[in-house]
Structure formats: structure tokens, C-alpha cells
Amino acid sequence: MEKNKINRLFNDNGSWWINRYDEFRLSGFRAISGFFAKINAGFRGVHIHNTCNFFGLPHFHRHPFSKIVVGENCTFRSDHTSNLIGVNRPCILSTHSNQAVINIGANCGFSGTTIGAAQEIRIGDNVLCGANSVITDFDWHLDVSGTQPSPVIIHNNVWIGLNVVVLKGVEIGENSIIGANSLVVSNIPANVIAGGNPCRVLKVLAT
Length: 207
What we know:
Strand order of the largest sheet: 2-5-8-11-14-17-19-20
Helix content: 10-25%
Low-confidence stretches: none
Radius of gyration: 19 Å
Number of helices: 2
Strand content: 25-35%
Distance between the termini: 53 Å
Mean pLDDT: 91
Number of strands: 20
Shape: globular
């Protein structure tokens, strides 16, 4: 019994030190990633607030004359160790026409999130995007589909779950939650929980 207590104490102390090491490593990683991410953004004409945090390097692609603007205190997790639910790619922000705009508010979080705009994507404040989510306002193969882009608007305090895909022309109301693995192809009102393929309202939240 005494031996079991000693073993448990050793294992717990070992875990404590390992967790502290991980915290220290991520803190240093964040500082280095932020330095290089902000330099890269500056060279590409992407406006990133200097209070934003980066874990790993995102990929920025800004079409000439388009705009990408990111507000204060946003966090981008592009490294697979920075979110233990599993991030399978870096965050990617890209514009694909002269008129395209990506505008992200304050205090938002992204984990391996892809945001691609040919016209307009506006994301409000306090929006959380789960690992490997996608937000796009066009079909990516316009020469094949013959379709046109349509703006995407995500209002304040929205939570977008793991692996969610938000397609063109969608507006998501404030305070709503989109369940994991959902495909959002039509508007979602404010103050609801929604999910599925296609995504639909599952529950109205108390306000």
C-alpha cells in the first residue's frame, strides 16, 4: 500500500513537471510564432492587431487591392500541439478578388480554421471557431460552377464547433452555437443551438 502511494505521488509530481514544461514551451512558441506571423502579415498587407496571439505560423494570401483586417486579442492556433482536440492544418486566411474583404473583430479564436473570401466575410467579436472549421463565401471553382460569391456574416459571441463548414450567403445571428461537423448552407438566427447536414435549429436559447 505504501509503495502504491509512493508510485502515485511520483507519477503525479512527474505529470506536474511535464505540464509545466508544456506551458513553458507553448509560451515561448507563442512569442516566436507571433513575431514571425506579424512580420509575414505586414509584408503581405494583412492588418493584424499587435495584441493577437499565434501558436505556429498561419498562412496568409491577400489578393492585390483586397483587405484582410484582424482585431485585437485574437488567437490563431496553427500547430497541432496547441489544441489537444486535434488541429490538422494551419489557419489559412485568403482573399481571391480585388474587392474581397475579410474583417475579423476582437477576442476571436481560431484553430486550424480556413477563411476564404472572394467577396466579403465579416466576423464579429468573441467568435470561437473550433478545430479545422471552414468559412467561405464562394465555391472555389467559379470557372466550373458558374456561380457568384455571396457574403458571409457571423455576428458577436458565436461558437462554431469542430469541423464545421460555413458556405456562401450565410448569416449566423449573435450568441448562437453551431454543433460539430455541421454544414451551414442557410441563415441561422440569433440565440439558438443548431447542427446537422444541412444545419438547422435544434434548440432556442433563453435570453
